[in-house]
Design brief:
This protein is an alpha+beta fold and 413 residues long. It folds into two domains: 4-211 and 326-411, 3-Layer(aba) Sandwich (Aminopeptidase), CATH 3.40.630.10; 214-323, Alpha-Beta Plaits, CATH 3.30.70.360. Helices cover 31% and strands 22% of the residues. The strands form four sheets. The protein has an eight-stranded mixed sheet with strand order 1-2-8-3-9-16-10-15, with helices on one face. The chain has a four-stranded antiparallel sheet with strand order 12-13-11-14. A hairpin with a 3-residue loop joins strand 12 (265-273) and strand 13 (277-286). Helix 1 crosses helix 3, helix 3 (143-161) packs across helix 10 and helix 8 (335-346) crosses helix 10 (391-411). The radius of gyration is 24 Å and the shape is globular. It starts with a helix and ends with a helix. The chain binds zinc ion (ZN). Zinc ion (ZN) is lined by residues 81, 144-145, 178, 201.
Length: 413
């Protein structure tokens, strides 16, 4: 039903526009160049026949596909981000199209003998015979999340052209700066006006996610006292060694490299220090709310214990919550996950439901009052030169969007 070349052309027209975001900029969007694609998307949404197409001063785009039924149907939304990660360059993307993938190594760049190999990236095997879009090995691809945008636009266009498919009002939202954690920050949930939404920002075909980590960042500061080592007895306090004690007191196996599934962790990612002052920077993660709280409390208690041992305020801890598990907001409205699951099955996609060991824009949006599970956009190996997307997965994502719209209207009849 969806013409392959059509979605390929659309996707390529997006990824060849550089939209890398920048965490060091305080502006929104964080880079001026994001406007290039944003403005193009506004024109395109108008061209395909959507209504109320708006872009605000921060480049957040919204649009409406009006209902074509008379009965009351919940308003649903589909959301993607148009920036790409600053982790790897997104300038001068030169996509390669591999038709009827033969299941063997794909040479990305003959000069560096850089290849996308199924012996390393095993997921490739399942796409034998399909059409893959890859990079030329020098940039990322930007399927994260321009695949999601191409899918949403294509699905809306399809619904406009097929009025026989009945649906309620549908809202479309495209955001800047997701990759630097700010995609949801200036998203006007009230203006969007949907009962719930889906981010089209997952990875491989079938992914459906509504659980993510509760997340916090912690900075542990140890104050020492620097004295000439020759005269130091009873006077010098070495903040590095006290920091070492602190590290040793945390559970050794609760670290990212030894945990999986819903297991949480403390991740020490930065140490800066000298005798006088040492700082430890941690991220704290747990799917379970109570265990998340317990972890943060443990960080505080350890500081307290060390301070008691040393008889003064040597260790201080500063903790900042970053995001929360959307499950808490989605569970009371689980039918929104059920509809997505049913839609996938209806178009022949096996749902893969698993907790995310990270966060999504949807988790922030869920806490802002817009419950927002995450659906696959189809790409693999995000944020680097090995990124690729099977066109067949993108087409399935379009079908899922169309089916979700249809099922939402049908269920409320
Ligand atoms: Zn993304």
């Amino acid at each position: 039903m969806i013409e392959k070349q059509h979605i390929i052309d659309r996707f390529i027209s997006y990824v060849t526009i550089d939209t890398e975001s920048d965490p060091h900029s305080a502006a929104t969007p964080s880079t001026e160049k994001q406007w290039d694609l944003a403005n193009k998307l506004v024109d395109e949404l108008k061209d395909i026949g959507l209504e109320d197409v708006t872009i605000d001063e921060n480049a957040y785009i919204m649009a409406t596909l009006p209902a074509n039924v008379d009965h009351d149907v919940p308003v649903i939304g589909f959301i993607s981000h148009f920036d790409t990660t600053p982790d790897f360059t997104g300038a001068n993307v030169k996509p390669q199209i591999i038709d009827e993938y033969d299941g063997l190594d794909i040479i990305l760049n003959p000069k560096d003998n850089m290849k996308l190999s199924p012996s390393y990236f095993e997921d490739l095997k399942q796409y034998k015979g399909q059409t893959l879009i890859t990079t030329d090995g020098t940039t990322l691809l930007g399927a994260d999340d321009k695949a999601g945008i191409a899918e949403i636009v294509t699905a809306m266009e399809y619904l406009v052209q097929h009025p026989e498919i009945k649906h309620g009002k549908i809202r479309v939202g495209f955001t800047p700066d997701e990759e630097i954690g700010r995609g949801a920050h200036k998203f006007d949930v009230e203006k969007f006006g949907a009962d719930w939404a889906y981010t089209m920002d997952g990875s491989q075909i079938g992914e459906l996610e509504y659980e993510n980590f509760n997340a916090a960042g912690a900075v542990v500061t140890v104050k020492g006292k620097s004295v000439h080592p020759g005269y130091a007895k009873g006077k010098l306090v070495n903040s590095i060694l006290i920091a070492q004690d602190y590290i040793d007191l945390l559970p050794k196996i609760e670290v990212p490299e030894q945990t999986e599934g819903r297991e949480g962790f403390f991740h020490l990612h930065t140490i800066k220090g000298n005798v006088d002052k040492t700082q430890l920077e941690y991220i704290v993660r747990d799917h379970d709310k109570q265990r998340f709280e317990n972890r943060k409390q443990l960080l505080i208690d350890l500081a307290k214990n060390l301070n008691e041992e040393h008889g003064k305020e040597i260790v201080t801890v500063e903790i900042k919550d970053q995001y929360y598990n959307m499950k808490e907001k989605v569970e009371p409205v689980m039918h929104i996950v059920a509809i997505a699951e049913k839609a996938m099955k209806a178009v022949g996609v096996e749902p893969i439901i698993k907790p995310i060991r990270g966060g999504t824009d949807g988790s922030q949006l869920s806490y802002m009052g817009l419950p927002c599970p995450n659906i696959f956009a189809g790409g693999h190996n995000f944020h680097g030169p090995y990124e690729y997307v099977p066109v067949e997965s993108m087409i399935k994502a379009v079908e899922v969007i169309v089916k979700v719209a249809e099922l939402t209207a049908a269920e409320k009849k």
